[in-house]
Amino acid sequence: MVPVFDPQHDAADRVYVFHGTGCTQVLGPAEFMDRVRTLLSAAGVVPASAPPGHPDIASRPFTAESAQHPGDGRPLPWPRERSSVAEVSVELGADAFWERVEAGSWATWQSSWPEPTHGPLFPPSPPDWLAEAPRWELDPLAPALGPAASGGWVRSPAQAWDEPGPAVPAAQANRSGGAPHHGIGLFQLTDLESFWVFAPEEDVPDVVARCEALAREHPAFSWLTGYFDARDVAGSLRLPAECLPLLEADLTAAGHPVDTWW
Length: 262
Fold this sequence. Notes:
The structure is a single chain. The chain is α+β, with helices and mostly antiparallel strands. The chain has one domain. The chain is built from seven helices and eleven strands. The chain has helices spanning about 30-40, 95-105, 130, 155-160, 170-175, 205-215, 245-255; strands at about 15-20, 25-30, 85-90, 135-140, 145, 150-155, 185, 195-200, 225-230, 235-240, 260. The strands form two sheets. It has a six-stranded mixed sheet, covered by helices on one side. Strands 3-2-1-4-6 form a five-stranded mixed sheet. A hairpin with a 2-residue loop joins strand 1 (about 15-20) and strand 2. Helix 1 (about 30-40) packs across helix 2 and helix 6 packs across helix 7. The radius of gyration is 19 Å and the shape is globular. The protein starts with 15 loop residues before the first strand and ends with a strand. This is DUF4253 domain-containing protein. It comes from Kocuria tytonicola.
């Protein structure tokens, strides 16, 4: 058994995990993304040189219905010059990604030892800020409520369903403080035409209401589309790209911490 020493701070609540088809992307503060790379590299995984593409959903979601076919007109990679977060991508699906993260935790356990060694001991495990980060999965068949094409991000069943998660040792839980994830992500994950809104489940109604209010002066917000899982819960929202700076300003003014990648 080895001690796990992983100090937490507010930035730890601003990490997001996205599982696509055969790929995984993690977004968050740069120092945390460096640590994700360290874990993956220690497990023999080479991070991708560019963000993953998602050809199984429409890349032009707001065009005529005849053009809303997965893979049509996919744009080339673009520089994201207004991003507040960094990213790490790997060509691993959800199960393989977490298996490699676990392996990397064992491979790097010595760097997690506090000096001098003292306190409770735990087996090496992924850091809380990554293991407990909110996760989304790309569902090409996710129903859309709104004018955009179907297929979008839904909350990972591994976290979203009303099932108990893995037990966490009491001392470990006390160390992390169990802080909820409060950030709202506005990310261009799939295309240049749109962006996605990822909010805590309890904040989604407020975000929708704000978009509806903004639509009175900015018609592009009328294209708001939600994507739902089998529980009929919205996992993500999609809007035209021109709405991103307006929504960012509105959410920030309302006191929401906002993360962007565009």
